[in-house]
Amino acid sequence: MEDKPSEVVLFGSWYSPYTSRVALALKLKGIPFKYVEENLSNKSELLLKYNPTHKKVPVLLHNGMPICESLIILEYIDEVWNHAPKLLPEDPYQRARVRFWANYTDQKIMPASYPILLLKGEEKQKAIEDMEEMQRVLEEGIKQDFPEQFSFFNGNTMGLLDIVMGVNSYNYKAFHEVTNSEIIGPKNPKIFMWVNAMKEHPLMKDTLPPHDKVVAMLKSMIAPTPDV
Amino acid sequence: MAEDKNNVVLLDFWPSSYGMRVKIALQEKGVSYECRQEDFDAKSSLLLEMNPIHKTIPVLIHNDKPICESLNIVEYIDEVWSHKTTSLLPSDPYKRSQARFWGNYIDKNVYSKGKKVWNGKVMEEKEESQKQFIECLKILEEELGDKPYFGGDEFGYVDVALVPFTSWFYTYETLGNLSIEEFVPKLVSWTKRCMEKESVAKSLPHPHKIYGFALEYREKHGHD
Predict the structure, then answer these.
(1) What region holds the GST N-terminal domain (chain A) (predicted)?
(2) Hey, of B54, B61, B84, B101, which one would you mutate to test binding to chain A, going by the most A CBs within 10 A of its CB?
(3) Distances in Å between the alpha carbon of A224 and those of A156, A216, A227, B109?
């Protein structure tokens, strides 16, 4: 039976934070959707059809048309379903700053977790220090750009930056446990408070994978599984 | 009401394709601005203050507030001066998402692959760099299809994102020893069509000037 064209379908992977961002945004907006779990070592024909350029998740399918790249998908969702909660601010300058910090997270912070996971000794320590500096830059920058809105809790709704930051940091305890580091902590008090508040949001719990599953996944990335 | 030119300042570096994007967008919207050239060996205190995170150009300073990253800036210009001329981004959300996708693709691929062609240092890698660069241009040509512009009938966001790199085509061809027109003739026709627009013609340096810059850069950075 063919999917109805107006149906929203999300192709993703359970451990991909980029996928979780989109799932969270759809839930925040109250948009019903069908989820398709992709096996990234054996990608489906549909995924390759809908994202031939990058062959990656997430892909959002709406009215039979695919949208790729998580930040682009989030903006699409906000524009098509432009009811509350709005993911981006109305003011063009504020929007530019949200986009700036979302890009900073994607270009700098997201890739920086791999060296911490995969390297050892001094190189690992350097990678940890680099990441801590980036977190500090992020904290200072967001405090400066959004002084009254830093923490989207206390009844305030989550916006694009909360989604990006919250998803990325949700399982920070799993990351700390596996890498024996403390990236998110009292050293960056505002971020620490913000991340912990977002962890309590019911939709976050509903969307993000649990601690033990993430620990197992991270461990498998360090030590390849033996051939069975 | 006449706009105060000093309200809009662009920190730029003239060979930068990213800076050219912003100039084209400002020209398209008819916005007066002051352009200040940065020296990469001696970045101004204004640049370091306005973009302390990345310390790169372009930076648009509007009413003393900085906006960084060229495609971000182009969207900002489109939103702020939305009353002036047609939009650079389409109004339909799906088409907007596609425009942003291709802007993102151009950002991730054209500069880095192009640089390997004109500044590649290892002979063995040269052929591979050329292949990858041409492949990237072919993908973009396929997206263009038979449309006059990436935006369709109207010059738009993706055209703005890509056309500055065409000022580098002569450099890619001469230093990379390849013929771009041979591989992507439609894209080259598109380039000529874009150059007929005043905003593009005024914003792109002459390809020979870019070539001169590339030669100096290679000499400075120890190329064989």
Answers:
(1) 6-85
(2) B101
(3) 42, 12, 9, 31
* B177-208 tens-digit pLDDT: 889 999 999 999 999 999 999 999 999 999 99
Q: Is the peptide bond before A58 cis (omega within 30 degrees of 0)?
A: yes
Rounded to two decimals, the ipTM of the complex is 0.91
Q: Which of B72, B98, B139 is closest, CB to CB, to A96? A: B72
Residue of B nearest to A51 (CA): B101
pLDDT, one tens digit per residue, over A16-53 is 999 999 999 999 999 999 999 999 889 999 999 999 99
Q: What is the pLDDT of residues B127-168, one digit of tens each?
A: 889 999 999 999 999 999 999 999 999 999 999 999 999 999
Q: How many CA atoms lie within 13 A of A177 on its CB side?
A: 13
**pLDDT at residue A144 in the model:** 86
- pLDDT greater at residue B90 or residue B127: B90
Report whether the peptide linkage leading into residue A85 is cis, meaning its omega lies within 30 degrees of zero. Answer: yes
Q: Which residues, 6 or more positions from A90, have their beta carbon under 8 angstroms from its beta carbon?
A: none
What is the arithmetic mean of pLDDT over B18-29? Answer: 97
Paired sense of beta strands B34-37 and B8-12, if any: parallel
pLDDT confidence of residue A154: 45
CA distance B97 to chain A (A): 6
Does residue A165 carry a pLDDT above 60? yes
- A150 band by pLDDT with thresholds 50, 70 and 90: low
Q: Taking CA atoms, what residue in A is nearest to B62?
A: A93
Among residues A187, A142, A185, A148, which one has the least CA distance to residue A165? A142
Q: Angle at Cα B37 formed by Cα B176 and Cα B31, nearest 5°?
A: 105
Per-residue CA distances from A54 to A16, B56, B92, B190 (Å): 15, 27, 23, 25
- Interchain proximity B75–A99, CB inside 8 Å: yes
Test the B interface: residue of A56, A78, A100 with most B CBs within 10 Å: A100
Which residue among B73, B94, B139 sits closest to A65, beta carbon to beta carbon?
B94
A79:B93 CB<8 A:
yes
Q: What residues contact B27, with CB distance under 8 A and at least 6 apart?
A: B198, B199, B202, B203
Residue whose token pair is 């504020």: A94
